[in-house]
Fold:
Amino acid sequence: MSVELQNMKWAIAVSQFRSLRQAAEKLNVRQSTLSRRIRDLEQEVGATLFERTNGGTRLTPAGQEFLEAARRIIEETELMISRLKTRSRGESGRLTVGVHASLSAGNLRATLVEHRRAFPDVEIHFVDGSSEHLISDVANSAIDVAFVAENYPGRDDKSLSVWSERVVVALAEDHPLASRDVVHWSDLRHEVLLLPQRGPGPEFLKLLVTKVGHSDPCRLLRHDVGLDRLLTLVGAGWGILLALEGATGAVYPGVTYREVHDADGPTRLAFRAYWRQTNFNPSLLPFLAILRERYPDLSGALAPG
Structure:
């Protein structure tokens, strides 16, 4: 048995108006066409749905039962179609974002907040990791877009230069360097430095080697834990921590932040957004469009390819 949705909708209209003539006028169809469709529907379901009298039409008990089910079917169908349309436009669905820096402040946080306001029905799933792991996940379609502080010019992925973040150092409030307005790289040579194995730890190590000028620039304590635990260690006096300005929104007892400078001023790490050229997730394009709006001078790099 195949029952058309339109016939069910027309039967619901007849039940509401209790008149074939008024229902036909509302539906903008001929009364004879509507009457024939109702008869066809009754034949399809094998039951009389309406009692026809000179005073109009009334639902039979079978008609009441049928139309209750028909209303549910139509509502669920319309909701399903609406969900599919919004998903195809990227207005709902799921977006997986790879990050390796803190979201407590800065451009990434602002971008994500703006996207959430514009597309509240898109579920964003975050994946944390090193630059290499995130780029690999993009290539393997495990994540949709990754923000990393490293340039990978040989990748087949699409990419966009987005923002840069200042390098800061997290210090215990009673540390001698906390009395200064800024910290220079040479000041770190004799410090105990907590180095994260997650996130931008490898980039920080490259900076240390470059800025301090030694392959083993200072005493390093590597930890495979998150930023919150590292900042707790800083506050407890275990060492100091290189971080990015996006981490400064995280307030921890006994911890303060200072910019790290070289001879030219603040040190910055540049970020790029990477995504796979053949990624067809509808939620990705609106996200990239927001990046284009926030960085209009680089919008030419955003062709979906």
Summary: Residues 96-270 form a domain with the D-Maltodextrin-Binding Protein; domain 2 fold (CATH 3.40.190.290). The longest strand covers residues 158-172. The two ends are 46 Å apart (CA to CA).
